[in-house]
Amino acid sequence: QVQLVESGGGLVQDGGSLRLSCAASARTFSTYTMGWFRQVPGKEREFVAAISPSGLSTPYADSVKGRFAISRDNAKNTVYLHMNSLKPEDTAVYYCAAAQGYYSGRYHYSSQTYAYWGQGTQVTVSS
Question: Cβ of 36: how many Cβ atoms within 10 Å?
Fold first, then answer.
């Protein structure tokens, strides 16, 4: 069982930045693909970014490409989402997710791939 705890959400102005963190309890954290998803009320959870166990593969949703960056520190069992140039449409609850093993291609983008989820952290971008 893997527990994920997100932190770093909050209220920020249009154009601002935030860094989300997700601390994982997994003893073999370095073998997990990690992902970030977000959800607004009334909509499906959507993929934001993912990172392979080694950190070499980092796919992004088109809506955040060039503005967000995902990274991981396997020594600290932590994955990060650096969010820059935030827009009001980025407002959502952001969830960290984990899937054991390496996934490629379309599997990154599906919430079905990830077996473990955090409780979410609210990000609000004011205009």
Answer: 26
